[in-house]
Amino acid sequence: MRNVLVTGGSRGIGLAIVKRLAAAGFSVIAVARRESDDLAVAIRCAADAARGAIHFHACDLSEIDKIAEFVKGLREKCGPLYGLVNNAGISFEGLLANTHNAQIEQLVRVNVVSPIVLTKSVVRNMLADGDGRVVNIGSIIGSTGYNGLSVYGATKAAANGFTRSLAREVGRAGITVNAIAPGFIETELTKGLGDDQKDRIASRSALRRLAEADDVAAMVEYLLGDGARNITGTVMTVDAGNTA
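Given the sequence above, the corresponding structure tokens read:
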């Protein structure tokens, strides 16, 4: 059973990814600062279904200096990591002129530095194994922009550049690196949007609706599968046609 590490796996898109991959037969390592009630239920359901498995490991990924040791411990306990899904992220809504420097630094640390350092530790092992898949969860805001989310948009644009360049670095070892850019999806990061805003966003989409967390999870499953073995360095958009 192949191991896949999913960060931010306790809620929202991350939890949807965890459940989808377990149902597909992967052994999923869900990483978050704490285990949510919903994740605990998913762990029990996966055990009852006996197809894949879900394991929770607590880690505060904003503590950059502890990441390498955390990955080392996971490998010793769980075995080789076939997949890494960099999903964990935070967002602060507000005009840049009113954003505290501490918030800017926190956004960059959690959304950019942390996944890059985590990927470095995991990819070192993938290079030794000669196989692996990395999926970075970005956002359409990284390319389209959105009022009040300039710093968040910058961090997601960074994820796209990181994806494309790393794909060239590790491709010779058979490792693929891709990103997924979800549109506006009902998660903790979009709970600040009012119903009117959501309706306006949906009306601008080609399919006249918002994408769902499981749509993103399905794309992750595809990118980890054999059918995507020749897809790398790409950004896959899942937004119901919002950017069409």
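Helices lie at 12-23, 37-49, 67-78, 101-129, 141-144, 150-170, 195-204, 213-224. Try to locate this feature in the token string yourself.
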